[in-house]
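Record 1 of the preview.
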Amino acid sequence: MRFRPDTWRPWLEPLGAGHVLETGTACTTGRRGDRGISRDDVTALRSRVGDDPDGLRDLFVAVMISGSGSGTTNGRGPRHTSAALSDARLEGVLRTTRASVRSGDLKSAYARLALNGVGRSFFTKWFAAVDDRGPDADRALILDVRVFRSLNALGWSSREAAGVGHWPTGYAVYVSTMHGWARELGVTAEWLEWLLFDRNGRVHDGDER
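->
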């Protein structure tokens, strides 16, 4: 994902998080100063931060940057990130939700994540970023509006699959369902999640892209 540090800097530097803008690599095309940040960059940062609270905070900021659309002109991502960084609950929420994810209790993680400026889509981006379990585990996946749109187009409903209209339960069922589908198809669940994101609801042959 391409992002523009100059767009983010006024929101992050006053909160001591401006250094996270060095994550990723400089873009060689387009506007000078833009950078690119990938899932691999976020994963590398995760491996470096360990259990350090400041490191977890940096990782959270990197997740918010990587998941904020174009990241170049849209001010919502920086503004929402600033709101979360200013929330007194931040350190505790990041620590407890990461622990729940790493223990495989995605439902509890979802139920515990409450931060100013962070909606459901970004909850799940954080879960996917901190889940460092091995490939045999049903690791956390992103569930944003684009993935939702594709699932709905396929006729899949988290409410029906879970048997209850409860977001934390629905998210846990979504993750287990995606891993089950991936095993049947011989692909990774992360690849399947990306495909649903990319299709953005256009899941049938002949749909316009």
